[in-house]
Amino acid sequence: MTDHQATPRPDALAWAAGSDAPEKNVLDLGFMALADSAPLIVAATQGFAQPYGLTLNLRRQASWAGLRDKLLSGQLDAAQMLYGQIYGIHLGLGSPATAMAILMGLNQNGQSINLSSALRGAGVTTGEALRQRTHQSGARLTFAHTFPTGTHAMWLYYWLASQGIHPLRDVHSVVVPPAQMVAHLRAGRIDGFCAGDPWGAHAVDENLGFTIATSQSIWPDHPEKVLGVTREFVEECPNSARALTMALLEASRFIDESVENRRSTAQLLSAAEFVNAPVSTLEPRFLGHYQDGLGHAWLDAHPLRFFADGAVNMPYLSDGIWFLTQFRRWGFLRDDPQYHELASQVHQLELYREAASALGIAVPQPMRRSILEDGKVWDGSDPVAYAHSFALHALAERQSLAL
Question: Does the reported pTM lie above 0.90?
Answer without folding.
Answer: yes
